[in-house]
Structures are given as C-alpha cells and as structure tokens.
Design goal:
The protein has one domain (6-94). The chain has 3 helices and 2 strands; from the N terminus they run E-E-H-H-H. It has helices at 28-41, 53-56, 77-94, and strands at 6-8, 15-17. A two-stranded antiparallel ribbon has the order 1-2. The longest helix has 18 residues, at 77-94. The protein is flat.
C-alpha cells in the first residue's frame, strides 16, 4: 500500500497528510481501504504502511517533513532503511 505523503489541500492550499487531506474527491486512506479490500478478497497479504507510520514518518513537526527528501513525498535514505526492515519482516512472515 502507498506510504503517506504531504499533499496540498484543494480548499485551503495548505499541505497536510494525504491519509486525511481531501486533495481530490477522496483521501489517500480512502483509496488504501479500497485497495486493501480487493487484496483481502483474493487472500493476498498486504503491507499497510499506515500501521507503521509512527515508526517511519516524523509528523510531530508537520510540513515540511524531514522523513522525506523533498519534504513531502520521496523518503530519505534513513526512511528507506526503516521501511526495509519492516518489509523484510513482512516478507519473512508472508512469503514462505
């Protein structure tokens, strides 16, 4: 599933987390929920980054976010390293 990011709110013009910001007609979280339901229907394991975001993304300071190299979307190497450990555990558990 996609990792959260900072997007521009279509009404306020301010940056906010995509999981809760209505930047189109839906939030990122709405989209992820729909994708997850399709995978679940077919019994496909899903790595939902929302379950790990507190470990990966520093949202305490808001935008701009130091967890992203461009402050809003693309993870830094440190963030990728954290994600890699989570992915390794997920793959070990689900792909044997």
């Amino acid at each position: 599933m996609p990792l959260d990011a900072y997007v521009k709110d279509k009404e306020s013009g301010q940056f906010g987390l995509a999981n809760v910001t209505n930047y189109t007609e839906y939030t990122l979280s709405d989209l992820v929920d729909l994708e997850k339901s399709v995978y679940a229907k077919h019994k496909i394991p899903v790595l939902d980054w929302r379950e790990y975001e507190s470990e990966i993304i520093d949202t305490k300071n808001g935008y701009p976010c130091a967890s992203f190299g461009d402050n809003r979307l693309h993870p830094t190497q440190e963030t990728y390293d954290k994600m890699a450990k989570i992915m390794e555990t997920f793959l070990d558990k689900n792909m044997k």
